[in-house]
Write a structure and sequence with these properties.
By secondary structure, the chain is of the alpha+beta class. 38% of the residues lie in helices and 26% in strands. The protein has 3 helices and 9 strands.
Length: 169
């Protein structure tokens, strides 16, 4: 019994000793948690600062209360005008899947109708309704391509916050 208690206490002590901080940069748009994006230390961030005026990609090293330490730069959240969120926003993957679904369905419908007409009638012909449906699906897939979320602007209701989750000893 003493051995189990000792092992349990050692496990609790070691797990607390190896706990790491989980500081992050929070991109917040309103109160909805689905529109919040987090950047952790070690992640790559593409931003546009007020000083440079163009997008720069850098790796986040650590956070302070007022500054973001990057591998090549030190920034204040107030200096950031925009952040590129194309690869980070989970809503973009949903839109990408819809685009793929509509494009694939339109192309597949057109291909199946073509193969079916060649197989049954020995000539290439497309039914008017199938051609129209295929064109609508393909056009919808192409039309939805620009709808993805590209940048997060640090203005208005949108805010950048540095969240420090450290345990003081």
């Amino acid at each position: 019994m003493k051995n189990m208690l000792t092992a349990f206490l050692i496990f609790i002590t070691l797990s607390g000793a190896f706990a790491q901080s989980s500081d992050f940069l929070l991109l917040k748009k309103g109160v909805n948690s689905k529109s919040q994006i987090r950047y952790y230390a070690g992640e790559q961030i593409t931003y546009k600062s007020a000083k440079l005026g163009y997008f720069v990609t850098d790796v986040i090293k650590e956070f302070d209360q007022n500054y973001i330490y990057l591998s090549e730069n030190i920034l204040s959240p107030n200096d950031i005008l925009e952040i590129d969120i194309r690869n980070k926003d989970p809503r973009n993957s949903t839109l990408k899947n819809f685009n793929s679904l509509f494009l694939g369905a339109g192309i597949l419908l057109f291909t199946v109708e073509s193969v079916n007409s060649i197989y049954q009638r020995d000539e290439f012909s497309i039914n008017k309704g199938v051609g129209l449906t295929s064109a609508i699906l393909t056009g919808l897939g192409i039309g939805m391509l620009p709808l993805r979320y590209k940048t997060f602007r640090n203005q208005g209701r949108n805010r950048l916050q540095i969240i420090l989750m450290r345990m003081d000893e």
